[in-house]
Amino acid sequence: MTETAEQGVGESVASAEERRERLFERRRAAYRGARRVLARSSVLGTLRERLALLENAEELYDLDESADLYGTGIVEALEAKVAGLLGTEAAAFFPTGTMAQQVALRCWAGRTGDPTVALHPLAHPVVHERDAFTQVSGVRPVHLNPAPRLPTAAEIRAFEEPFGALMLELPLRDAGFVLPSWEELTEVVEAARERDAVVHFDGARLWETTVHFGRPLHEIADLADSVYVSFYKSLNGFGGAALAGPGTLVEQAKAWRHRYGGQVFQQFPTVLSALAGLERELPRLPGYVRHARVVAAALREGFAAAGLPWARVHPEEPHTNEFRLWLPYDRDVVAEAAVRQAEETGVLLFGRSWDAPGPGLAVTEIDVRAAGLEWTADDVRAAVAEFASRLP
């Protein structure tokens, strides 16, 4: 390639990135100005909106108590609440889920004598954490069946090498927020036990799974040896995570939390937001999941009516309140149409970014929460028609 050609490619890439950055700013402005959105996102929210989570915080915790110091006080209260909800002996608060899971699997590696962790190649630590398992924690990941679903019991039994821990992401976000059936999940756990492996749940969004499984949280968590949960994904908190499991494991994890730099001086704003999520948002999640199924069906019907029958909602009946939408267009085309719709009508149907899994394909995530409950199926179909009218 000539120098001029290389220069042209570089400029083209730069200009594409600049266009997407400008589009993101337009999307953020459209989100803030929209009279109606399908989902209110913390990613696009203002500082004022985020701080509003702490309104009436005195209902969540005694604000006249001393502030936390290195994990005391309100942090311990949150840990006890999480352990109670999940039915575990104990829980430890962590500033991030990445840290919580690295620590959990490092502890299990020491206890089992095997640093090998079997997990899906689409699991969060594989896709989004820059090889932290291997680079920081010395854990050796091996990948299970790459199909866009959780592994089966047969695949666990047939896996060709030993592993000390099986990690299951529930739901598997990058496959479309998918879950196995309750029967399939229990069989997978039994298969891992047959191989003398411990089972760890990446439950960042475990809070959303009770409708699909038809089981309470403590019964779901009881299948695993340890569970990680997030406070900002489903529960809309400022951040933070918890690792729950046996008391001895949690005590060991707290020692490693300190070594990893997670023994933060004071964390009460984040912890208060987590308590707000558990108190106010957690009870509403089952309603979000049920309404997500209404929204998904209306999206399919709306695109079919608009002459786009190839549009795909995955899963067809969402397993949680989040799912994916696939369209046969370049991602920049659909992203532009989504922003234009909001700018011109005040209705933002698709507020998240779009990815390009292949040429001429675009995929986005749909998240149904409180704002989405206001949308009827007719509202969704009408918004789809408006969106489709802006596609070439």
Automatic annotation (TrEMBL):
The keyword Membrane does not apply. SUPFAM superfamilies: PLP-dependent transferases. InterPro entries: ArAA_b-elim_lyase/Thr_aldolase (IPR001597), PyrdxlP-dep_Trfase (IPR015424), PyrdxlP-dep_Trfase_major (IPR015421), PyrdxlP-dep_Trfase_small (IPR015422). The keyword ATP-binding does not apply. It comes from the Bacteria. Its cofactor is pyridoxal 5'-phosphate. Keywords: Pyridoxal phosphate. Residues 75-300 form the Aromatic amino acid beta-eliminating lyase/threonine aldolase domain. PANTHER family: L-THREONINE ALDOLASE, L-THREONINE ALDOLASE-RELATED. Belongs to the threonine aldolase family. This is Threonine aldolase family protein. It comes from Streptomyces cinereospinus. The lineage of its organism: Bacteria, Bacillati, Actinomycetota, Actinomycetes, Kitasatosporales.
